[in-house]
From TrEMBL:
Residues 5-151 form the PTS EIIA type-2 domain. Its main location: membrane. PROSITE patterns: PTS_EIIA_TYPE_2 (PS51094), PTS_EIIA_TYPE_2_HIS (PS00372), PTS_EIIB_TYPE_2 (PS51099), PTS_EIIC_TYPE_2 (PS51104). One of its GO terms (biological process) is phosphoenolpyruvate-dependent sugar phosphotransferase system. It comes from Enterovibrio coralii. Residues 291-628 form the PTS EIIC type-2 domain. It is a multi-pass membrane protein. This is PTS 2-O-a-mannosyl-D-glycerate transporter subunit IIABC. The chain crosses the membrane at residues 301-322, 343-362, 374-400, 420-439, 459-477, 498-517, 537-554, 561-581, 601-628. Keywords: Cell membrane, Membrane, Phosphoprotein, Phosphotransferase system, Sugar transport, Transferase, Transmembrane, Transmembrane helix, Transport. It is found in: Cell inner membrane. The keyword Transport applies. InterPro entries: Bacterial_PTS_Sugar_Transport (IPR050864), PTrfase/Anion_transptr (IPR016152), PTS_EIIA_type-2_dom (IPR002178), PTS_EIIB-like_sf (IPR036095), PTS_EIIB_2 (IPR013011), PTS_EIIB_2/3 (IPR003501), PTS_EIIC (IPR003352), PTS_EIIC_2 (IPR013014).
Amino acid sequence: MNLPALTHPSLINLQTTFTSREEAIFALAEQLDQQGKLYDKQQFLDAVFAREEQGPTALGEGLAVPHGKSDAVKEASFAVATLKEDLKWKGLDEDEDVNLIFLIAIPNAEAGSTHIQLLTELTTTLVDDDVREAVLKATNAEELLSLFSKEEEKAHQEDIIDTNSPTIVCVTACPAGIAHTYMAAEYLEKTGKKLGINVHVEKQGANGIEDRLTADQLNRATAVVFAAEVAIKELERFDGIPRIEVPVAEPIRHSERILKEAIEAGKNGSGAERAIASDAPKKHNSWKTDVKQALLSGISFAVPLIVAGGTVLAIAVLLSRISPEMLALYNEAGSWLNMYRKLGGGLLGTLMVPVLAAYTAYSLADKPALGPGFAAGLAANLIGAGFLGGVAGGLLAGYFMRWVKENVRVSQAFNGFLTFYLYPVLGTLVVGSLMLFVVGKPVAWLNQGLTDFLNGLSGTNAIILGAVIGLFVSADLGGPINKAAYLFCVGAMANGNFVPYAIFASVKMVSAFTVTFSTMLRPRLFKDFEIETGKSTWLLGLAGITEGAIPMAIEDPVRVIGSFLVGSAVCGAIVGAAGIGLQAPGAGIVSLFLLDYTPEIGAVGAGAIWLGAALIGTAISTAMLIAWRAHAVKRGQFDVQVATSN
């Protein structure tokens, strides 16, 4: 980047004095305005001070880089001030002494391109102590501009580093994945050249992993520097490599100290077994695995909304049943109870499908797919495609954005523009249009057909549906099969059929109750840890959590899971046959008071059937498990460490 072209001698102030940060910003902004760089000075100042509130712009080493991105800026430019006396400026930890100020003005259209390139170029140029000192001592504007011109020429020279020098690998990552990620990387690389060591930096930014470290670099690494404030991806690659961990902004101020600490850490070693990296091509998942992982990811992010929304809605429904007055409040628009009803219903009805779609897409294509994924989910809501539309839209957004990432390339300088403008806009337009006018309509018809089918279920069909859901719930205790049942039941609930989720909620208690009752009744047949597990699983069952039964299932999968399946199928069949519904997901045993029922059954009858089905299923599973385990112990097929007497 040609830095001198973005400023002007009239924008350069040498050996000046300001009494405050505000005075400095006002003075430099006035110069930018006088030079014709701004449409509206006040609007630009508002943007600058808004950025100052978001986080510190003093970067250490006496440098402050306030900046504003606004439509009030005509063209990208910056003003400079060197100070006679240090000025206090808000820094990362505390106020810092500043003697060099760059005020950067960026049009919104260049927020992700010129902005990042200019900010990075300025800060990495000034990391050189000699350059910074020369800038501070410059006596005229031409002298200062010539320093940036020389640095521009130096940037094109190839640095030769001794191959016998230490190798330090680094990973930079910040929450936004743009500015500090690339700035920290530039500082580390530049300082590495200055120190004569090999520094290789992997950026884990908004576009995923860039400049991925090679196997050779990892295997030769003396140490690794993690300059990050978010979780490092694929952390296992660095197992056994001595490491230094610092905030992402730290290299901007102290890159030389950090690299020297890394060299010392490498000399001392980590004492851990070191992983051997390989550049063998990463095995790509099959599309079936991709789809399964994406759906499970989407569901896992939607679950908190479902639980929170269901619980809030459950509380509102419970309160409405206290008295006719509370019921009136529940139905009165704007009342406090009606607002809680809308809050819970909004989490379930408005947000659930977009969140499901967005994080299904995220699983396939990382951050760039989030915006298009949300758009796909909203489109599904708009056309009545419901839960199935969210699933289809999430997959569509994920695969489309994966293709875009692989095929739409720009230079590193435009990464911000690509990530924060092109990706979300292009993805939203394409995926949103496909959902609204092409893919979404057939999915909406399918969704309506499924709804009509479920609403028409009765008699034998309802019993079979209940039994199948029961089998799915307990087949893997929270695993993919269980999640498939969950997906189906929540989707049916979102479409207005509440029977499947009532089945699901009742069956979830069976496995947990069975572990408790079987270990209580015949402790001689169970190991110590199974007995200990059984003491608490009944509580998990009341909360609707099946995972508590996993330890016992792992120890003896055929007999334990087999017993669960029979009781769960019976439980599901009973609830399905009764036609009981449940509108509030994730409420656990509280669901007992929230059931939908026919007048013939009544509230008490519905509660008795729903809980009774779980207890009947538990009794069947418990009897089967005890009998099956006793037979296995008697034949020596299962070894039990007796801890208690019967």
